[in-house]
Amino acid sequence: MCSVLRPWVEEGPRRDDEGGVVRVSRPLYQLKAEFFKTLGHPARIRVLELLSQREHAVGEMLHEVGIEAANLSQQLAVLRRAGLVVTRKEGSNVYYSLTSPEVAELLAVARSILTGVLSGQIELLEDLRTVTGRRAGAEGAGLSRG
Fold first, then answer.
1. Which of these, 70, 49, 40, 42, lies nearest to 58 by C-alpha position?
2. Nearest-angstrom CA–CA distance, 32 and 145
3. CA–CA gap between residue 90 and residue 131 (Å, rounded)
4. What is the DSSP string of 25-90?
5. Its pTM surpasses 0.85
6. How confident is the model over 47-65, as pLDDT tens digits?
7. What are the distances in angstroms from CA 27 to CA 1, 30, 40, 103, 109?
């Protein structure tokens, strides 16, 4: 069944105190929150952006992401556990790639949303500057209230 129609996801069987099997389900919104929490680190977003372009070796990403090797390794492990990236080994190099092109699509949608939000903020800032400029002009001409 499609997850859009089913607002929960089976976690799989678990054993109760008496050894019986119990099915446990978690709300889909909770799983989504955990998924977005995984994306909630700038280094992980940068890694996913790089991998949206092509597969990268860990060494290639170090300079681009701009964090220490140990930290990059931790961030890659988080993405790997979340199922967002996969690895392949070639000689001494470990290469990372996205598990699905939908990850790149998600980043593109986020970029589009942010562009809209930020352009709205720029318009608001311009409006504020216009109003502030008018007030300063009125005060300079002795027209301000006071």
1. 70
2. 53
3. 61
4. EEEHHHHHHHHHHHT-SHHHHHHHHHHHHS-EEHHHHHHHHTS-HHHHHHHHHHHHHTTSEEEEEE
5. no
6. 999 999 999 999 999 999 9
7. 15, 5, 20, 22, 24
